[in-house]
Amino acid sequence: MEYRCGRTGFNVIRLLSRSAVALVIAPTVLLTMLSSAERGCPKGCRCEGKMVYCESQKLQEIPSSISAGCLGLSLRYNSLQKLKYNQFKGLNQLTWLYLDHNHISNIDENAFNGIRRL
Q1: Which has the closest alpha carbon to 93: 70, 62, 74?
Q2: Of 1, 77, 95, 116, which is the most exposed, with the fewest CB atoms less than 10 Å away?
Q3: How far apart are alpha carbons 68 and 66 in whole angstroms?
């Protein structure tokens, strides 16, 4: 590849240097996004491996950012009042779920759709 010192040559060098910066930054950003998506630990919760503990958070809704690979979920000591249709959609790997010490008075008959191993 031949570089010239004219205006076009500088434009090529400037374009290549921008591409190099993008090539360095893009993977770093993607890895950061992937690692937080893999963890799927909602704010205020504690995650240990594939177990998520969202206890005593005064939650009125179940966090939506729980990883699909979650095996255990504790929502004890919150303010949950109802479990909606497909409430646990995407969490089909759950083997245990703690909902005690909430104020649940309404459970949709399809709240647990897709959870086969609970």
Answers
A1: 70
A2: 1
A3: 6
